[in-house]
Amino acid sequence: MTAALLPAHGVNGVNPAPAAPRTPLHVVKPSSGPDLAAAERAAAAFLIALGIDLDTESLAATPVRMARAYAEMFSPRPFDLTTFPNDAGYDELIIARSIPVQSVCEHHLLPFVGVAHVGYLPGERILGLSKLARVVELFARRPQVQERLTQQIADWLQDQIAPRGLGVVVEAEHLCMTVRGVRASGANTVTSALHGQLRSDTASRAEFFTLIGSHERPTPLLDERARL
Q1: How far apart are the first and last CA of the chain?
Q2: Over the range 43-76, which residues count as b (16 or more CB within 10 Å of their CB) and which as e?
Q3: What is the pLDDT of residue 132?
Q4: Beta 79-81 vs 25-27: how paired, if at all?
Q5: What domains appear along the chain, each with residue ranges and CATH number?
Q6: pTM for this prediction
Q7: Catalytic residue among 105, 117, 158, 171
């Protein structure tokens, strides 16, 4: 049985009551918080075990700096996931390109840095644009592998905003690959995750990949080094 479409002015000429605004989802990473004192002691023991002499002016505070640095890298900022009704019925792609990605390889605890491109075909709700970057940070600020990071961003957004289609591409340079081991300096790893129409429809998928590739991207690692 096909459902009838009601006119915009409601039943019997009575305007329907406006929908109550949605309460934003407050997103925090469940954690008891870092124990910086314990991390500092462990960092000092780790460096001494590697033969690093901490009895110098320049290295004396390294364990505390190291503890604070890793605590920061593993702590995403809380945020409110704000969505809005898609009143205009917008049905084309919405894409945020070159969202900075800063994460840490869970195998060597060395950083990997790059960019993420996140796009979706909206359904009934649209997402505040800054929240796409917040979601990337939410899953990046922890020990990670790039494949899982890409999938987690895509799966979480799919669950939260129910778009008609969604795509995530992450491009990153891994220090565990460029400064040790094979030392393949400049090598980038690219991963993708697709849902809905962007996975099943060839034309939509091609449009997504064309749009995220239609600009010249910076070299993330060089940008990071320039700020050191």
Answers
A1: 64
A2: bbeebeeeeeeeeeeeeeebbbebbeebeebeeb
A3: 96
A4: antiparallel
A5: 36-72 (no CATH), 80-227 (3.30.1130.10)
A6: 0.81
A7: 105
Q: 26 an active-site residue?
A: no
Confidence band, pLDDT 50/70/90 cuts, at residue 215: low
Residue 105 annotated as catalytic = yes
pLDDT in tens, 19-74: 556 677 778 766 668 899 999 999 999 999 999 999 999 999 999 999 999 999 99
Annotated catalytic residue: which of 144, 146, 152, 158? 146
Question: Is 41 strand, coil or helix?
Answer: helix
> Is 106 a residue of the active site?
yes
Reported as a single tens digit per residue, the pLDDT across 176-187 is: 998 988 888 888
Enter the tokens of residue 5: 């479409």
Is 195 marked active-site?
Answer: no
16, amino acid identity = P
